[in-house]
Amino acid sequence: MTEAELPEREGMDYDVVVVGAGPAGLATAIRLKQLAEEKGADISVVVVEKGSEAGAHILSGAVIDPIGLDRLLPGWREESDAPLVTQVTDDRFYLLGPAGGVRLPNFAMPPLMNNHGNYIGSLGNVVRWLAQKAEAVGVEIYPGFAASEVLYDENGAVRGVATGDMGVDREGQPKGEFTRGMELRGRYTVFAEGARGHLTKRLIARFGLDAGREPPKFGIGLKELWKVAPEKHQPGLVQHAFGWPLDGKTGGGAFLYHMEDCQVMVGFVVHLNYQNPYLSPFDEFQRFKTHPTFRDTFEGGKRISYGARAITEGGYQSVPRLSFPGGVLVGCAAGFVNVPRIKGSHNAVLSGMLAAEHLFGPLVEGRGYDEVSSYEAAWRASDVGRDLHRVRNVKPLWSRFGTYLGIPLGALDMWTNTLGFSFFGTQKHGKTDAASLKPASEFKPIAYPKPDGVLTFDKLSSVFISNTNHEEDQPVHLKVRDLDLQKRSEHDVFAGPSNRYCPAGVYEWVEEASGPRFQINAQNCVHCKTCDIKDPNQNIDWTAPEGGGGPNYPNM
Asked: pLDDT of 214-240, one tens digit each?
C-alpha cells in the first residue's frame, strides 16, 4: 500500500512536543510546567518515547553529578522515593598493563575529575522517577510510540512529529492489526533523542546546523550489571581505568561503580575513531574483566543485565546550532557529554531547563514555528558551556597523540583551564569516526579468547539479558543504501567490521556458493546506533522500528 492509499493520520495539537523521555526531554517538560505555574500560564506539553516505558532504553554508567536535579527539583534528596542513594566515597584511577596496574595519585588529577559529592545509580531509574514527576505536573507521556517523521509547515518550519505506523509486515504492507501513526503537532518541538538520534541527524542536515562546527565524534559504551558477593562489595567505590586491553593508538577505558544492594556496574568505552577494522569493542570489554586488578570483584557473582549505547564525544567544538525554525535540540542530541568525566546527564537536565526558559517567553507571547535563537546564543555562557569548554581539548589531544601522551596533555590542559587559560587554544577533531577506519590489509586479525560463560560471555547470551525484543514480521529498521557498495567496500576492503563493531550480533557476512551475503538480524538490535556512525561508507541508516521495540533495561 502506498502512502497515498493509507488513511490520513489523526492528530493532536500541543504547545510543545518533546521527542524522547530521557533526562533532557523530561527536564524540558517539567521546567515548562513549573514556569507556567509560576506565571499563571497554560502550556500543554507532550513527550513521545520509543521505549516501552520511560527509562527502558536508558543506558549510562552512571556516576551522576546532581547539579541538574538540584536545580530542577530542589529537595529531591529528602524524598522517600529518591532514585539516588549511594554517594561516592572512594575515587580511584588506574593505568593498566597486561599483567598489572598502577593506581594514579588522586592529588595529580584535575579538580573537576573528583567524584566526591556525586551519586552512583541507575540513570534509567532516575528517568522513571522523573517521568512520574512530569506526569504529576500535567505532562502527557506516550511511551511505546516512536517518532518516525518530522512534520514541516508550508514555510519549512518544524511543526511536530508523526509516530510510526504499527502492524506493518516485513514487506511494508499493513497487517490485520494495522494502526496508522499519529501526528503530534506543536508550536515548538524539542528533540531529545540522545546520541545520534535519527530525526536529529536529518534536522542537522536539512538546516545546516553543523556549519562551521567540527565533525561529531562518538564512542561506544558497553555495560553489565552484576550482583557480587557481599565481601566483594564496597558501596560508594568508583574505579576508572585506561590502557590494556586497548593499544596506545585506540582511545577508551573502563569503569566499575559499586552501588547499593551488592550491585556493581562495570562498563567499557571505545572511542569510535579507532583504525583497526578487526577490533571488536564487545570482545575488548570481555577481556578487560579478566584483568587481575578487577577480576576478583566478579568471582562468586552473577551477571544480571547487559547493554550498549553510543556516547557523544565531540564536546564543545562539535555542538551544532541548537535552534531552527520551530524547534531546538537538547541533551545528548546536542552533544553535551563531558568526555573525561564520562558524564552527560547533568548537562542533559541543565540544557532542558535552559531550553524551557527560552521557549517560555515566546509561548506566552503567542509565537510559534519561529526560531528561538536566544537559546543558541545563551548555552555557551551557561553552566553547560562552561563545563564543556574546560575539557574541550581532552578528546582531540587523546586522538592525536594516543593514550600515553595524549592523556597527560589532556590532564595538563584541564589543570590550566581550571586557572582560566590553555596552552592549546581549541583543538580540532579532524576526521569523522567513519573515515578513521583503515583497510584490513594494514592489520592482522585479532584472536579473541573464547568466552567462559562465567566471567566472559558471547554476544547472543548478552543480548538475551538486555530483554531486547522486536516484532519479527516488521520492516527491517536498519537500512542499507547500496548492497553492492557494502560488499565491494565494507566486506572486500575492510573485512566486514560491522560483524565486530556491532555489540549485539546484528550484522553477519554469510558465505554462500554465490558469494558472501550481508545478513541483518534486526531483532537483536539494542539501538546503540554504532552502525550509523562507524560504517566506513555511511551506507547504513538506523531508523526507528515499531514503538516499544528494542531493549528493556532494568536498573541500568
From this structure: 999 999 999 999 999 999 999 999 999
Whether cis (ω within 30° of 0) applies to the bond prior to 66 is: no
SS3 content of the chain, % helix, strand, coil (to 5): 30, 25, 45
Nine-digit cell at 212?
A: 562551521
Provide the total of helices (H) and of strands (E) in the chain, helices listed first.
Answer: 16, 24
Cell readout for 376 is: 543558541
Q: What is the pLDDT of residues 329-350, one digit of tens each?
A: 999 999 999 999 999 999 999 9
What does the radius of gyration of the chain's CA atoms come to, in whole angstroms?
23
Question: Rounded CA gap, 94 and 116, in Å?
Answer: 17
What SS3 state is found at 330? coil
- The DSSP bridge partners found for residue 324 are 327
Phi and psi at 119, nearest 5°, equal -120, 145
pLDDT of residue 89: 97
C-alpha distances in angstroms, 168 versus 48, 49, 144, 177, 468? 20, 19, 15, 8, 19
C-alpha grid cell, residue 141? 507521556
Contact 228, 300 (CB under 8 A): yes
Length of the chain: 556
Tell me how far CA of residue 503 lies from CA of 107, 270, 499, 553, in angstroms.
36, 12, 9, 15
Q: What is the pLDDT of residue 7?
A: 84
Classified as helix, coil or strand, 480 is strand
Strands 45-49 and 140-143: parallel
Distances (CA, A) of 372 to 154, 259, 354, 359, 375: 19, 41, 12, 7, 6
pLDDT of residue 537: 98
Using DSSP, state whether 206 is helix, strand or coil.
helix
